[in-house]
Amino acid sequence: MQFDKNTSSPKKSAIGLVVKSIFGLAVILGIVLILNSIDFPSPKKEIEKIIPNENFKIVK
């Protein structure tokens, strides 16, 4: 008869899951904050194009 050794307990795995979740959320939050602080280039003037109404077709 063989005996199985149970090396992990449910409490430790639950605590590990919580710690990993908090660490993952902190990493995602850090990435968002870093991307938010970068000033990406944007167009200096507003792009506006007038589309004539005669080009529209109604498709049913």
What is the topology?
Blueprint (H helix, E strand, L loop, with lengths): L9 H28 L23
Describe the structure.
It is a single chain. The model has no long low-confidence stretch (mean pLDDT 81). The chain contains one helix and no strands. It has a domain at 11-40. The termini are far apart. It has 60 residues and is mainly alpha-helical. Helix content is 47%, strand content 0%. 0% of the residues are buried. It has one helix at residues 10-37. The radius of gyration is 28 Å and the shape is elongated.
State the main characteristics.
60 residues; single chain; mainly alpha
Number of strands: 0
**Average pLDDT across residues?**
81
**Percent in helix:** 40-55%
Residues in β-strands, percent: under 5%
Gap between N and C termini: 74 Å
Q: Based on the structure, what is the oligomeric state of the protein chains?
A: single chain
Write the H/E string, N to C: H
Number of discrete helical segments: 1
Q: How many whole angstroms does the radius of gyration measure?
A: 28 Å
Based on Cα principal axes, name the global outline. elongated
The chain-level structural class is mainly alpha
Biggest sheet overview = none
Poorly predicted regions are none
